[in-house]
Specification:
transmembrane helix, single chain, mainly alpha, DUF5985, membrane
């Protein structure tokens, strides 16, 4: 259990780092796609923290996976927004 929590924390930290990089890229380019990716990685970080803190055998498990779904939908929306004909 301790090892799983440690790995989950490491993944959350990596998600935060990826979000920080995407925000830095957004500051340089002002491309909205980077904001979408940063938000998605922040949501994945929150999802990983929720999975670690909450017991996954209770009724809150779908909520945790819902956060992951929203993160991936955010990436899809960002890609569609980027490729939209203007």
């Amino acid at each position: 259990m301790i090892v799983a929590a440690f790995i989950s924390g490491a993944i959350a930290a990596m998600s935060f780092t990826a979000a920080a990089f995407f925000l830095r890229f957004w500051q340089k380019t002002k491309d909205r796609l980077f904001v979408y990716f940063a938000v998605a990685f922040l949501l994945l970080m929150v999802e990983r923290i929720m999975r670690t803190v909450l017991d996954m055998e209770n009724e809150l498990a779908p909520l945790v996976y819902g956060v992951r779904l929203v993160a991936f939908l955010t990436i899809i929306v960002g890609i569609v927004d980027k490729n939209r004909v203007k």
